[in-house]
C-alpha cells in the first residue's frame, strides 16, 4: 500500500521525529547533567510535535486549538531549541528574550485575528512564515556572534541550518502573495508540505549537532584528564613533554630562548613517615599552588613524579630562570603550612636551572642539565638554586657522583 505524503502524513512524521528526539534529549540530559540547555531543547521538540498533532486534527477539534494554539506551540518550540542551544554553548544574545517573547505574542495575535476576525488562510501562512523565519534568524545570529562556533563543524552546520530554514520561510512568505488562497490549509500546496520537511530538518540537524558538540566536549575533557595530575591539578609528564616539543621547535626556528627548572621538596619522605600520606598529599598540593601562583600565565608547571616538579619558561634564559627559581625558593621557605590543629610545617625546596642552547639536538638535553643542577643543589645542602652551565656541567656531575658515599 503506497503512502500518500499529504500534509497530515508529513505532520505525523514530524510529530514522531519530535517525540523521539525530544524524549531522547530528556534522557541524555538526565545522564549528562553537566550539559545545560539540552532539556530545554527537548521541551522545544515536544512542543513542535504537539503543535503538529493539533495541526493534523484540523476540522476535528476547535479552530482556536488547531490553528492558534498549534502554530504558537510550534514557534515556542523553535524558540526553545535555539535558546537551549545558546545555553549549551554559553551564548548570550542581547535582547533575545524580549525579541522571542514578542515573536510568540505577535504570532498568537495574528493567528487569532486571521482565524476569527479576518479569516484568510494566506494571511495565516504569511504570518507564520515571517515569524518562523525571524526565529531562525535569531538562532543564526547567536551562533554567528559566537566565535567558537566558526571553528567547529557542528557550529557551522547549525548556522547553515538556521539560515537555510529562514531563507525557505522568507521565500514561502513572498510566494504566498502570488498564489491563489487555498480554501483549506490541509490542501495549501507543496510549499506547506515543504514547510513540514523544513521542520523535520530543523529537529534532526539541531539534535545531531548538539550530541556532536557534547561528544567533542567530553572527548576534550578526557584528553585534558589524561594530561592532568589528579593530585595537584598540574600538568603531568606527558603534557609537559608535549609543551616542550612545541617550545623546542619554536626555539630551533627563531632562536628564542627557554629555560627549564626542576625542583623538589627537601626531606619530603620525613613528612610522609611522620604525619602520613594524607598530610604529604596536602603538602604537595600546597607546593603546587605556590608554583602556579608565582609564574606567568604562559609558563608551564608540571608534576614530574613524587615530590619532584618541573617548569618550562618560554622566552627566558638561565639568568632569568635563576631569578624565577630564587623567588619560588624563597616563597616556599617563607610559607608555613598548617593542616588541621596538629600539623604546622615549614618546608624548603631545591631548584636546578638550565636553558636551551643552539647546540642541543633535543629538548631533553635541557631537562638533563636541569636535573643535574637539581642534584647539585641537593648535594650542596638543599634549599638553594643551582645552575651548572652548559659546557662544564657533565664534568661537575661526574665529580659529584664519584664523591657520593
Automatic annotation (TrEMBL):
Annotated GGDEF domain residues: 256-390
Reactions listed under catalytic activity: 2 GTP = 3',3'-c-di-GMP + 2 diphosphate
Pfam families according to UniProt: GGDEF (PF00990)
Signal peptide start and end residues: none
Needed co-factor(s): Mg(2+)
SMART domains from the UniProt entry: GGDEF
EC number: 2.7.7.65
GO molecular function, one term: diguanylate cyclase activity
CDD domains assigned to the protein according to its UniProt record, in alphabetical order: GGDEF (cd01949)
Enzyme class per UniProt: transferase
Transmembrane segments: 12-29, 41-61, 67-86, 98-117, 123-145, 157-178, 190-214
Record's keyword terms, sorted: Membrane, Transmembrane, Transmembrane helix
InterPro entries according to UniProt: Diguanylate_Cyclase (IPR050469), GGDEF_dom (IPR000160), Nucleotide_cyclase (IPR029787), Rev_trsase/Diguanyl_cyclase (IPR043128)
Protein name in UniProt: diguanylate cyclase
Species annotation: Marinobacter nauticus (strain ATCC 700491 / DSM 11845 / VT8)
Taxonomic placement: Bacteria, Pseudomonadati, Pseudomonadota, Gammaproteobacteria, Pseudomonadales
Amino acid at each position: 500500500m503506497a503512502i500518500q505524503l499529504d500534509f497530515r502524513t508529513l505532520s505525523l512524521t514530524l510529530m514522531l521525529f519530535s517525540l523521539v528526539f525530544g524524549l531522547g534529549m530528556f534522557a541524555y540530559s538526565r545522564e549528562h547533567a553537566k550539559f545545560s540547555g539540552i532539556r530545554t531543547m527537548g521541551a522545544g521538540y515536544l512542543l513542535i510535535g504537539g503543535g503538529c498533532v493539533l495541526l493534523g486534527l484540523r476540522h476535528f477539534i476547535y479552530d482556536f486549538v488547531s490553528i492558534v494554539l498549534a502554530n504558537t506551540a510550534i514557534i515556542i518550540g523553535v524558540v526553545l531549541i535555539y535558546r537551549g542551544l545558546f545555553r549549551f554553548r554559553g551564548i548570550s544574545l542581547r535582547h533575545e528574550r524580549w525579541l522571542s517573547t514578542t515573536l510568540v505574542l505577535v504570532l498568537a495575535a495574528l493567528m487569532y485575528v486571521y482565524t476569527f476576525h479576518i479569516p484568510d488562510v494566506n494571511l495565516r501562512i504569511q504570518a507564520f512564515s515571517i515569524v518562523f523565519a525571524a526565529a531562525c534568524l535569531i538562532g543564526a545570529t547567536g551562533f554567528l556572534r559566537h566565535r567558537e562556533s566558526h571553528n567547529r563543524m557542528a557550529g557551522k552546520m547549525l548556522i547553515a541550518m538556521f539560515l537555510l530554514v529562514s531563507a525557505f520561510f522568507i521565500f514561502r512568505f513572498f510566494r504566498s502573495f502570488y498564489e491563489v488562497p487555498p480554501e483549506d490549509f490541509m490542501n495549501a500546496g507543496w510549499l506547506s508540505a515543504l514547510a513540514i520537511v523544513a521542520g523535520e530538518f530543523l529537529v534532526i540537524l539541531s539534535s545531531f549537532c548538539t550530541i556532536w558538540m557534547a561528544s567533542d566536549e567530553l572527548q576534550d575533557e578526557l584528553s585534558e584528564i589524561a594530561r592532568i595530575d589528579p593530585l595537584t591539578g598540574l600538568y603531568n609528564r606527558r603534557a609537559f613533554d608535549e609543551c616542550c616539543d612545541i617550545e623546542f621547535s619554536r626555539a630551533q626556528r627563531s632562536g628564542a630562548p627557554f629555560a627549564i627548572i626542576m625542583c623538589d621538596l627537601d626531606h619530603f619522605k620525613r613528612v610522609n613517615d611522620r604525619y602520613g600520606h594524607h598530610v604529604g598529599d596536602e603538602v604537595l598540593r600546597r607546593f603546587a599552588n605556590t608554583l602556579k601562583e608565582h609564574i606567568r600565565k604562559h609558563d608551564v608547571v608540571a608534576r614530574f613524579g613524587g615530590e619532584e616538579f618541573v617548569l618550562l619558561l618560554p622566552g627566558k634564559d638561565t639568568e632569568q630562570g635563576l631569578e624565577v627559581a630564587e623567588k619560588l625558593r624563597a616563597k616556599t621557605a617563607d610559607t608555613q603550612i598548617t593542616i588541621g590543629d596538629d600539623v604546622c610545617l615549614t618546608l624548603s625546596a631545591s631548584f636546578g636551572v638550565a636553558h636551551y642552547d643552539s647546540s642541543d639536538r633535543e629538548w631533553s638535553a635541557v631537562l638533563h642539565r636541569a636535573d643535574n643542577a637539581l642534584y647539585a643543589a641537593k648535594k650542596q645542602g638543599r634549599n638553594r638554586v643551582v645552575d651548572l652551565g652548559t659546557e662544564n656541567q657533565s664534568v661537575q656531575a661526574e665529580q659529584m657522583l664519584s664523591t657520593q658515599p
